[in-house]
Sequence to fold (196 residues):
Amino acid sequence: DGFKYTLTALGIIDLLAIAPFWIGFFVPPQYLNTIRALRMLRLLKWFRYSRPMQLVAFGFYKSWPQMKPLLFNLFIISMTSTAVVYEIEKSKHPGIDGIFDAFYYTTVNVGTSGYGDLGSMATASRCVIILAFIPALIVFSAIIGVTGQAFEEIFDMERSGKADPLTIFKTERENHKQMAKTNRLYRKPWKRQQNL
Fold:
């Protein structure tokens, strides 16, 4: 029963809270400041006692099945535009030395931040960013909509007094398992025929 606790969300939070203390004994002195900064992970223990934090976590958990394909689409858009920008800019732009620089440039521009530390030299890569921006913006909007709908359902439960975060986590986990089982059946049509 004690081992099962270590695999729960609260057990993992407890492990992350105490791990930097023990890791500090085994790392070279030059990394101690980084390890000490990781002690901020202890704030995650507040999750156990804070109902609002539990509700926020549940909102993201509830929206996760719908967010997975959206995030995958965003990943495909990002990787495709990164590869094209890298191929265009690698010999023309001194600031883009590798694929990571191209990924940074693409992500910052598609994500609408646009810090200005890297700018495109070629018109072709600017066109790639413009073409990637439109579908990425649509996916961002869908992610916000899905997450907002999940939070609206959570807040409605909270207002009606039906929200016990730990209980509804278990119910939602069962829903996720059932959804995953259904998805596996649809990927294997021969098994679907057997179940009918």
Summary: The radius of gyration is 22 Å. The mean pLDDT is 79. The longest helix spans residues 51-89.
